[in-house]
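Repro case for the chain-ordering regression, as requested:
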Amino acid sequence: MSIADSAAPARIPSVSTPTLIWAAALAITAILYVAPNVAPWAAKYPSSAIIPIADWISALMAWLKSNFTWLTRGITDIFNVPLQWAINLLAKGWKYGYGPTAFVFPRLSWVGVCAAFAIAGFAFGGWRLASVAAACMIYVALFGQWESAMLTLALIAISVPLCIVFGAAFGVLAFRKPWVDRAIIEPMLDLMQTMPTFAYLIPMLLLFGNSPVSGMLATAIFAMPPMVRATVLALKRVPHEIDDFGEMVGCTARQKLLRVLLPSGRATMMIGVNQVIMLALNMVIISSMIGAGGLGYDVLLALRALKIGQGMEAGLAIVALAIVLDRLSQAAARQRPAPHVHDLNFVQRNPMLTLAVAILIVTTALSFFVPAFATVPAAIKISTAPWWKATVDWINIHFFDAIEAFRTFLLLYILNPIRDFLVAFPWFGMVLLVGVAAYRLSGARLAVITVLMTLFCAVTGLWEKSMATLYLCGVSALIAALLGIPLGIAASRSDRFAAIMTPILDTLQTLPSFCFIIPVVMLFRVGDVTAMIATVLFAIVPAIRYTNHGIRQIPENLIEAATVSGCTPRQMFWRVQLPLALPEIMLGINQTVLLALSMIIICAMIGTRDLGQEVFIALAKADAGRGLTAGFAIAFIGIVADRLLRASTDRLQSRLGLT
Amino acid sequence: MNDLAPLRDEALSAKDDRPVKLLCKDVWKVFGEGAAAFMAKHNGAPTEEEIAKAKLIGAVRHASLEVKRGENFIVMGLSGSGKSTLVRCLSRLIEPTWGSVELDGIDLLKASPQALIEIRRHRMGMVFQHFALLPHLTVLDNIAFPLSVQGVDRKTREERARKVIDLVGLNGREQFYPRELSGGQQQRVGIARSLAVEPEIWFLDEPFSALDPLIRREMQSELLRLQSVLKKTIIFITHDFDEAIRLADRVAIMKDGQIIQIGTPEELVLHPATDYVAEFTRDVQRAKVMSAARLMRPQLSSIEYGGTIKATDKIASFAARIVGVRKNFLVTSAEGKPLGEVVPDDVIDLLADRDQLREVRA
Ligand SMILES: Nc1ncnc2c1ncn2[C@@H]1O[C@H](COP(=O)(O)OP(=O)(O)O)[C@@H](O)[C@H]1O
Ligand SMILES: [Mg+2]
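-- result from build under test --
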């Protein structure tokens, strides 16, 4: 009797406040969805209430443009000098005079550049890296992409140092003044890293015109965040004792920074440099849209004209360049200072550098007399364009039906329904749900931030487009996760599989986003399906990586304990490994979502109909207000997703007692 | 036997009239929000409970000490007892929350940043537990680094660096990078580097704690050898009591941020202030810390002595001899004045740990 008494209250489900809140929010949303007429303003954002943020931004840009022309001109002129110099040195050569009598001082000979890259590879990583570097550069040369590739390289060569210097300076500032970091730099970096690449181009285009300098500046700004972060991290990681040592020998603040702290953090900073280079490559290629030229321009032209073969060739040249730059900068980052011996002159201390410079000079001098050194002779050029075209034609002839069926199936049964569901989603309901989720996961602060950001998408009148973005990004990220997590699990269980996956993932991660579109377009033509597949390919890497790492890093003793207590392998996996790896897997998913978002935006080039398209159109029309507003909306979607995912990871972690 | 006490005291308390180099008065370091205001509110003397209630950490509390010029002063305490914090207060690497620190009578805490830089450049050296060598510099450049910070030209500083490299026995390793050296060698670099500026006062924060026991002993001997030549004022941190008594003129024992006793190893062993100190000293071989004066008996002039020793000599230093010849030794003061004698049987008793009785008698 007494047992029944005490059990009775437990049986009546006591409804807790959070459950109530959730239920209420869901109910309101459902009602709005099913019967939008109850409160039309809450279902579809009334166009009369749209805040003209876009117009304000346009006005601000116009004001900047008309009042600061002297400044922008000055900046353009200043940066143009080294930039033109680098472009001439690598790609164009110098031309004095006009017509047939003009004296042309040639660019660096392609033979010499290939050799220099090989020597750099040898110096940093031995014969293996030397052959990789040489092979990639020769590929670029033989496949007729030399001039474009060198133009791209020139832009990178100028923007990367700029990025490193300014990035390190901001990093130092953030390290020195924590409040500046918290109040300004950290939020800026978040915004910069979620802001779509196109959005950087618009203000640059407006302020600096359609020129390589715009592209270079956009690149320098876009690629800066990892350098800032790496610098802060490097400085924070310097052992406390080294810091004390700097004080104890009486360093001034400046000496301590330049001679003690920064050199001690070199290894971490070099990781930042590698990331800067890769981001810069990515951005330089996208900058070709505002007249930077180079490999990206070739891809763009080919894509526009649907010249699959040319697009593929230029795309592969980007891949080759990306691999060279990535491997070289990584190897350079691992370099340790060589034991140096005093009393040696410069040449003796730097034999490789000397050799490379000598070869460059000799080959370039030779190109005055031997044309083969100046330009890649047509006789040894190879074009794979016809071959690619033939392949695609062949696939299309033989598999058209199958591919088309697959495409239609995806579109009709998966993509379109989700799209329709989300686009019709009442904005008020979404804001409510986001707010409740954020509040429950983290607290009032996060709730306010996420609600404001979600509201931004509504009040700017971009709600439908935002939802369209969310739909493509969400579906792609979901598919990437569904494919990536099992692959990661497989990699964690078999060293062999992991060994096979690693180089593939490395390469996927190295490739600029542009490159993913080309092969997919060949098979699926333009549209949402192509965008989705390219995005999945681009975004799948972190899902695999983090899952693999998450499972592998589970402490051995936990596994042993589970084994001893008689877990079957199945139980072990579901009840021990997966739960413990979950926080790490969530981190991977978080990355996947952010990558997917950035890729979806680029897919505007192949005709998606979302915020990306909005930015893309604004870019074509040089409409700063429209482009930046859409850019902010994209960034905010990314930040909301990131914060919510991170908060749930934190919660998960503290529930598992892993923090 | 009572007539002996004044003689013994005279021999032992051989007035240390060296000038005070570093004086630290009532130093506190309290970590946490609003620590300074908290200290001011409690007039610089909060109780343990008050600190805990304000959710602060009293890393160093009420620390006073004075270090004489040329003294080996050891700060000993278990990990977390506040040694590093104390020594960082002394060098003002961290600002003490309360109290004063004087170097040669000048208040360090009032020194301007400029003056502090000058003091550190020329008068202080520090050795770190984990070496704190700069990974991107060679041994030679690491050691010359403090000089290069001062703007000393390359030739002079490398010359000086080579001299200290000689001193610590690292010849031939000048062009190595820190990572290419063993732990012991790395710490030699650390020592050489701190000596390159010829500092007057030398802070060593657990310099040998990261080394293997064998290497550690070797480095201790090395330090004693260096000190016999250099005669620096040393403030040496350790958590190892054996190391402390081996190197110390005087030891300060710390516990939970407080200095609970300061004294020579002998005083600590014979008169531990608390059970905590007694716990440390229990396993110490007394012969190593006790001086001849402690075993001294009144002189019987008729006897022929087997040898002569100073009152301050450690018993371990002549135990083998006196037990070997089995004759009484004459004990003299530092100036050679006869004070009394030591009997072999007493030494044997002491070595066999049978001296408890005598202590009571004394
Ligand atoms: N910056 C700090 N903030 C808060 N507490 C600290 C800080 N530095 C040291 N402490 C605390 O002060 C105490 C003494 O630390 P420390 O001086 O490093 O001890 P030791 O060197 O004797 O091992 C420890 O309890 C430590 O947790
Ligand atoms: Mg310590």
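Ordering looks correct now. Residues 1-10 of chain A have pLDDT under 50 and may be disordered.
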